[in-house]
Design a protein that fits this description.
By secondary structure, this protein is of the alpha+beta class. It has 13 helices and 10 strands. It starts with a strand and ends with a helix.
Length: 276
């Protein structure tokens, strides 16, 4: 199994793109065949060979297809069919970026997996996924430079409005600034912040805060053994009021109790790591 993750180098691109990442699973690699993506306030563009199969399971049902596709921000886990070898290149967008990109998808831009034509999305005359995948498998810097160049012109023409600008300012001071003090920090009302954040991202600030805490917690948990986990301590460490509070959030967001999760370790971060 090979993987890597690298941020954009171009400053214009970095306003909208968090990182580029690569993942390859071969016939000899072992692990859960249906790992889960934990809740994520950001979206990902998945680039793959045109005939490469994908399948995702959500509460709303199954999504099947072939080739490149978008995974929109999601509030619940998404189960992926990784039973067969695959090779994908991912582009992780910044939180709220899809709002500024004006994608031809009805709001809210949430909880969907959508087939995408990359040439149309990036306004390219030609785009060969197989060629790009073949040349960037082991060369993260080359991949970054290629996509920085592709995205620079496309992203530089985007016009942000007052809502997206405010959300960018919110994210810049989070999590150092508590949600209750965000209005005073940014010199506007808390209600204005909440309304703009929901409009741009499709989720509330509270939901975003919870997703970020869970992400940090799962990043920590995948590095330690099951017998090292003390859930009461974990709850306090990651900002939950107590262990029952954490249990409720885990059951709601990933569909598992802490004990069941610790036994299964079936989130994608447990299977593939954090690409560090």
């Amino acid at each position: 199994m090979r993987n890597w993750k690298i941020p954009p180098k171009n400053s214009t691109v970095a306003r909208y793109i968090d990182c580029y990442w690569f993942l390859e699973k071969t016939q000899g690699d072992f692990g859960p065949s249906h790992p889960k993506l934990n809740p994520d306030p950001a979206g990902h563009l998945i680039l793959s060979k045109p005939r490469q199969y994908y399948q995702y399971e959500q509460e709303s049902g199954s999504t099947l297809g072939q080739g490149s596709h978008l995974i929109l921000p999601h509030c619940k886990t998404i189960s992926m069919d990784h039973s067969q070898p695959f090779l994908v290149l991912g582009i992780k967008f910044q939180v709220g970026a899809f709002y500024s990109l004006k994608l031809p998808i009805p709001h809210p831009l949430l909880d969907q997996v959508i087939s995408i034509n990359v040439e149309e999305l990036f306004q390219l005359d030609t785009f060969n996924e197989e060629k790009i995948l073949a040349t960037t498998i082991a060369q993260p810097e080359l991949c970054r430079d290629v996509f920085d160049k592709i995205l620079n012109g496309f992203l530089s023409e985007i016009d942000e409005d007052k809502h997206s600008e405010l959300v960018r300012n919110v994210l810049a001071v989070f999590p150092e600034t508590p949600l209750s003090k965000m209005g005073a920090k940014l010199s506007c009302s808390q209600r204005t912040i909440e309304r703009s954040f929901l409009r741009v991202t499709g989720i509330t600030l509270k939901q975003y805060h919870t997703m970020e805490r869970l992400e940090a917690m799962f990043d920590y948990l995948h590095k330690i053994d099951q017998n090292q986990i003390n859930w009461a301590d974990i709850a306090v460490q990651f900002g939950f009021s107590d262990q029952p509070h954490l249990v409720r959030h885990m059951k709601s967001s990933i569909g598992s109790t802490p004990g069941k999760y610790a036994r299964q370790r079936d989130l994608s971060i447990d299977v593939y790591g954090n690409f560090e």
